[in-house]
Amino acid sequence: MADALEPETLLQAYAMGIFPMAEGRDDPEIHWVDPRRRGIMPLDGFHISRSLARTLRQTSLTVTVDRNFDAVVSACAEREETWISHRIQMLYGQIHRRGFAHSIEVRAGEDLVGGVYGVTLGGAFFGESMFSRVTDASKIALAFTVHRLRAGGFALFDTQFLTPHLASLGAVEIPRAAYHRRLAEALAQPASFAPLGYSPSASDVASSAASGNTQSRTQTS
């Protein structure tokens, strides 16, 4: 039987730049990962295409926060191959109830059709996984997540690995040492996943992302 793992140990691991993975849904073991190269989403560099901006402004989908955290994690784990074991999901539920893990949910009416979840410590957000059951639902969830993190004063959006999907949205890879420096700075920075009075519309999110694209192009040109 696997050794007991307390939520505090999981949070300490994140503070050290380490995250958990399992070999499958029923794997009782937890493997700790600290990649040589780390994926991050620059909060001023989220890329939104014209088609996604149009979708955000015209969609009938709605976005909620922390309404169905466990359902989002379960949906992210519903794949033939997943690193989210039952044990890891239970731990995420425990730290969610302590206020350290959050979900962004995309809905068609009351049906959950997309979402993102992650862990927060200080000014760092560790994006864990996302899912989509309709076109662009995960992109909408990410756009709302980036907007919320910027509004809440976060300094780091850790995506762990860089996938083609994340790269198309502006994510980049940095060396391990650079990541750990950014992590230390972010952990020392106060931030809030629920900023006072924060209630953006989809148009607000689309406009903000477009502004961020322009700013990022200006800084790199």
Please tell me about this protein's structure.
The structure is a single chain. With 221 residues, the protein is α+β, with helices and mostly antiparallel strands. It has a single domain, classed as Leucyl/phenylalanyl-tRNA-protein transferase, C-terminal domain (Aminopeptidase, 3-Layer(aba) Sandwich), CATH 3.40.630. 41% of the residues lie in helices and 23% in strands. The chain contains 8 helices and 9 strands. The strands form 2 sheets. It has a 7-stranded mixed sheet with strand order 4-5-6-7-8-3-9, with helices on both faces. Strand 7, helix 5 and strand 8 form a beta-alpha-beta unit. Helix 1 crosses helix 4, helix 3 packs antiparallel against helix 4 and helix 5 crosses helix 8. The protein is globular, with a radius of gyration of 17 Å.
Produce a short descriptive summary.
The protein has 221 residues and is an alpha+beta fold.
Structural features:
single chain, 221 residues, alpha+beta, Aminopeptidase, 7-stranded mixed sheet, two-stranded antiparallel sheet, 9 strands, globular, disordered C terminus
String of helices and strands: HEEEHEHHEEEHEHEHH
At the fold tier of CATH, the topology name is Aminopeptidase
Distance between the termini: 55 Å
Largest sheet: 7 strands, mixed
**CATH class group:** Alpha Beta
**Would you tell me the overall average pLDDT?**
91
Coarse structural class: alpha+beta
Radius of gyration, in angstroms, nearest whole number = 17 Å
User: How many structural domains?
Assistant: 1
**Order of strands in the sheet with the most strands?**
4-5-6-7-8-3-9
Strand content: 15-25%
Q: What is the H level of CATH, i.e. the homologous superfamily? A: Leucyl/phenylalanyl-tRNA-protein transferase, C-terminal domain
Shape label: globular
**Weakly predicted, low-confidence segments:** 214-221
Query: How many helix segments?
Result: 8
Judging by the overall fold, what is the CATH architecture? 3-Layer(aba) Sandwich
- Approximate helicity band: 40-55%
Tell me the total number of β-strands.
9
